[in-house]
Design goal:
twelve-stranded antiparallel beta sheet, mainly beta, single chain, 171 residues
């Protein structure tokens, strides 16, 4: 199970959110709105983001930015004042697709840059082939290379398919 989650999202999702590597991320949507005062960029309407072997779809994708340290001068543009990504929130019909048949769905996915955590909420389901895990909340701790699936009203459910080798097993 651990390798399933790690392979699915830690290896694949982290690069989509993290801006540390110089690999292009392409985001398409019906509209994009940048708000300097709110330090955010909102993509809405059939959002599709791609980065290498990972694709993500959602109704909206909000990127919250940290301002660069230091003061603004008259010659600095608004975009020059923006620093790193603080948080990314994908909402509404969130779907993830990675290589080797790895997929995920949820209502909301939140990436926190400072803690490098990805939280999937709203009936989150992760699948790799026929293997499946779901719960109320799935948390991926990228720095720590660990994951946590939380239950509540909806219990955690995991389905693992193992080889049907019956050697040495007697009923």
């Amino acid at each position: 199970m651990r390798s399933f989650l790690i392979l699915l999202f830690l290896a694949c999702s982290a690069p989509l959110w993290a801006a540390q590597q110089t690999v292009p991320v392409k985001i398409t949507s019906d509209t994009m709105t940048y708000t300097q005062k709110g330090d955010q960029v909102v993509f809405s309407g059939s959002v599709h983001a791609t980065r290498q072997d990972l694709e993500m779809w959602s109704d909206t994708l909000t990127v919250l930015l940290d301002k660069k340290q230091g003061g603004q001068n008259a010659t600095q543009g608004a975009m020059d004042q923006q620093g790193s990504i603080k948080k990314i929130i994908a909402q509404g019909n969130v779907r993830l697709k990675a290589d080797k048949g790895r997929t995920g769905t949820c209502a909301k996915a939140t990436y926190e840059a400072a803690s490098e955590t990805l939280t999937l909420e709203g009936d989150p389901v992760l699948m790799e082939g026929a293997n499946k895990i779901q719960g109320e909340v799935i948390k991926l701790y990228i720095k720590e290379n660990r994951s946590e699936v939380l239950g509540g009203k909806q219990r955690v459910e995991a389905i693992f398919n193992t080889p049907a080798d019956n050697k040495g097993i007697t009923p």
